[in-house]
Amino acid sequence: MPRAASQPSGRGRPIDPDIETRLLSTTLELYGDLGWARLNLDLIARHAKVGKAALYRRWQTKEQIMSAALRFSQRSLGDLDTGTLRGDLVAVGQETAERLFGNHGTVRMRAMIDAKVFPELFEGEIAGVRAEGITGGREIIFRAIERGEIAKGTSPALILDAVAGTIEHHYLMTPNSKLKEFEAGIDKYIESVVDLVLGGIKSQSSSADR
Amino acid sequence: MPRAASQPSGRGRPIDPDIETRLLSTTLELYGDLGWARLNLDLIARHAKVGKAALYRRWQTKEQIMSAALRFSQRSLGDLDTGTLRGDLVAVGQETAERLFGNHGTVRMRAMIDAKVFPELFEGEIAGVRAEGITGGREIIFRAIERGEIAKGTSPALILDAVAGTIEHHYLMTPNSKLKEFEAGIDKYIESVVDLVLGGIKSQSSSADR
Q: Which residues of A touch B175 (CB under 8 A)?
C-alpha cells in the first residue's frame, strides 16, 4: 500500500510526454473559460485527468504553469526566415491570425491584459514569454536592414506592433456574426495590413534620406 | 413603515444624477477586478452604495449596465474635428492612450475579448457600443477624402485599426516596470504611429494613381 502511494514521486521525469501537452492545453482552456482569478492547479489536474503529484512535480504555482502554457501556444518567430521583409511580416500576421482564430483564441491577449491587472501574481512569469516574442520579431527587422531593404534605425517594435496590433484590433471590433467572413478573407487582409506598414516604413526612410 | 419601503419605486426618474455615474464607474471597476463571470447587479449596488431598487429601475441585466458603462467610458469620436487627417488621427491615438492609462485601463479591450468568449451573454449588447466607435472613426476618413487629403476608397477600418491597435499592442507588450516611461513619451510615440500609418496610406494612394 505505501509503495503505491509513493510510486509517482519515485518515477522521475516524464514517462508520458502527452501528460504535459494535456496539462498545458487544459490550462489554456480553463483560463479562457474562467479567467485568472478562478484558475487553480487542482482544477487543472482534475480537468486534464492527471494526478496532482504529476502536475506538482512539473509546476508548483499557477503562474508557472500559465507561462509554460503560453510558451507552448506560441510559435517561435525566431525560426522564421522567408528571405524578404514582406514575406516575414506576412508570416507574423499569419501567426497572429492563427492564434486568434485557433483553439485558444484570445488567451494570449487576455493574459497580457491580466498581467496589468494582477501584476504581483503574473508579471514576473509573463515577462519571459513576452521577451521571447520581442526577440524573435527583432531578428526580422535586423535581417531586413542587413539586406538593405529598410533604413538603419527603423524601430522593430513599431513595425511588429503595427502588424500584430492592427489585426488584433480588427478582430476585437468584428462582431461574432462576421468572424467567419473575416477568417475567409484573412490572407488578403493580412497582405493589406503588411503593405500599409511597409509603405509607411518606406516613406519614412525616403524622408530621412532627404 | 410600508411607505418607506415603497418610496424608492414611487420616485420616478433620476433625482440624483450622481447615482448613475457612481453605478457605472463601479461597474467598470468591479468588472476590471473580477471579470465578467463574477460580475452581478447586487454586487454593483452594494459597492456603489446604491439601493437595489434604484439600480434595477435603470438596468435589469448585467449586460445592460455593462454596455451603459462602456458607453459612459467612451469619448465620442464623432465630435472630434481638428481640420486635418493627421490631427484627427493623433486625437484617436490620444483617446486610445488615455483609455489605457486611465482609471479603467484595459476594461474596454477586456470587454471586447469577453464578447468573443461569452457571446450569448454579451455580444448583442456590446454591438451597439462597437458600432458607435466605428461610425465616429469613419467620419474622420470621409472628411479627409472630401478635403482631398487621401484617395477615395481608402479603408477607414484599416487606418483606425492600425492607429488604435498599434498603441494597444505596444501597451500590452510593455512590462509594468516600463509603463511610466512609455506614458511619459506617449505624445511623441502617438505621432510616430500616426506618421507610419499616414506614410502607408499615401504610398498606397500614389501606387494606385500610377
A: 123, 127, 130
